[in-house]
Amino acid sequence: MCNLAGADPVLGAMIVNESGSNDPRNPAEGASTAVSSPAPAVAERWQDRLREVTLMMKELSEQTEPQLMVSAYRNRIRNLYPASSFVAISRRDLEAPRFRVTRASIWERDVNPWEEKASLPVYDRGMLHDLLYAGEPAYMPDVSIDPDDPAGEFLAGMRSFVAIPAYDDGIAKNMVVMGRDEPGAFDAEELPDMVWRTNLFGRATHTLVLKRELDKAYERVDRELQTVAQIQRSLLPAELPNIDRLDIAAHYETSERAGGDYYDVFPLAGGRWGFLIADVCGHGTPAAVLMAITHALAHTAPDKCMAPANLLGYVNNRLSKRYTDNGTFVTAFYGVFDPADRTFVYSSAGHNPPRVKRCSDGSMFILNRAQSVPLGIMEGVEFTEATAELIPGDQVVLYTDGITEAFNDDDKIYDVRRLDAVRANCGSDARALIASVLDSGDEFTAGRPADDDRTLVVLKVS
C-alpha cells in the first residue's frame, strides 16, 4: 500500500514513488529510482484545445440533469486528459474512514450515483482511502497497487496516476483518480489545470443537484398547496341561492395557491339571508388555515339567527382566545338582508365598508355606520349594528382590499374611485357588474400578477 502522508510544498501536490517515499529527491535505500519529472505531453495546437473546451462548455450549458452533465463532461475531458482507467470516489455523507466508489471505468454501464447510492461499494482503507482523506492533489509517476488493496480492482494494471480532489466547505469530499498503464504517462504541468477544472465542474454539478432537489421540493409543496386550495374552495358556497328581490353574484380569486379571503351566504329564518365577507391578514397557507377556522366558527355558532353584531362577537372571542395570539387578525363584514322590507342590517369588524350605488338618483354611499376593530385582536369587543334601507335598483358591492389596492407597474393604486366609476351602468345585472370590475382591474394592472386575494360579492336589489 502507498504511504500518502506527505506533500511537496513546492508543487502543492503529492509526488509518490513506488517505494512509498513522498520525496523523489531522497529515495529510501534499496528502492527503485523515482521518476521526478513527467513525460512530455503530446504536442497539441492551442486552437485544437480551445475548440475542445468550447464544445465542452456548450454541451454542459445544455444539460439540466446532473447525470447527463457528468457524462458529457467525462466524454470531453478524455480528449484533453487521456487515461486508461479512472475511478471517482466520495466521502460525502459518510463517517471517516469510509468512502464510496461512485463511478469507475471498469463498470459496464454508466451508474447514476444520486439514484443508486445505496448499492455502490463502500471501503474504509487502501490507496484510494489514503488519497481521499489526505485531501490533496497527487501526481504518482510510478506506483504499483498492492494486490491486497480492497479497491485495487478499479485501477488494476495501472502504473502512473493523478488524483484530483473536489472540495466542498474546504474539505475534499470527492476525488477522481486517473491511471495509465505505463510509468510517467501524465504531464505534471497539467495537474493545476486539472484541479481547477474539476473543482469548477464539481461546483456546477453540485449546484445542479441542489437545483433538482429544490425543484422536487417545490413540486411536493405545490401539490400540497393545490390540495389546500381545493379544500379551501370547498368551504365556499358551491352555488349561490335564488333570493327573492335580490340578484347576487360572487367572484373569488387567490393571489397564491391558497389564500385568506372568505365569503359565505347563510339562509336564516323568516326568509332572511346573511352575507359574510372576510379577509385574513396575510397570504398563502397560514391565511388559508385561519380562513378555514373562521368558516368553522361561523358555521358552528349556537344560534343560526344571531344578529350581525352577535355573530361577529362570537367569532371574535373564539379567534382571540385560541387562534390569533401570534398577531394575526381577520377583517369581516356581516349583513342580513330581509326581502320583505328590503332592509340590510349589518356590522363590520374593520372591513372595507360595502359601497352602494343608488340607481334611482345616481348617488353613492357606503355602509360604514357600524365599524369596529378586526376579529382576533382581543376578546370581549362589543360590536355595533346599523340598518340600511335599500330600494329597487340599488347595487351593493362587498369586496376585499385586493380589489381596490391592486397596483400597476407605475405603483399607482386602483382605489375605490375606479370601482365606483365602473358601476355607473345601472342596466347591468350582478354578474355583469362583477365582470366589469374585473375587466377594469385587469386593464389597470396591465397583466401584473395580483399582489393580494380578490373577492367580490355583488347584491342588486330588484
Describe this structure in words.
There is one protein chain. By secondary structure, this protein is an alpha+beta fold. The protein folds into 2 domains: 14-213, 2-Layer Sandwich (Beta-Lactamase); 235-461, 4-Layer Sandwich (Phosphatase 2c, domain 1), CATH 3.60.40.10. 31% of the residues lie in helices and 23% in strands. It is built from 9 helices and 17 strands. It has a 7-stranded mixed β-sheet, sandwiched between helices. Strands 8-17-16-13-14 form a 5-stranded antiparallel β-sheet. Strands 9-10-11-12-15 form a 5-stranded antiparallel β-sheet. A hairpin with a 4-residue loop joins strand 11 and strand 12 (343-349). Helix 2 (66-80) runs antiparallel to helix 4, helix 4 (191-234) runs parallel beside helix 5 (284-299) and helix 5 (284-299) crosses helix 6. It is elongated. 36% of the residues are buried.
Question: What is the topological layout?
Answer:
Blueprint: E1 14-17, H1 46-61, H2 66-80, E2 85-90, E3 99-104, E4 122-123, H3 127-134, E5 138-142, E6 160-168, E7 171-180, H4 191-234, E8 246-253, E9 261-267, E10 273-280, H5 284-299, H6 308-322, E11 330-338, E12 343-349, E13 355-358, E14 363-366, E15 386-389, E16 395-399, H7 401-404, H8 415-422, H9 430-445, E17 454-461
Helix pairs in contact: 1-2, 2-4, 4-5, 5-6
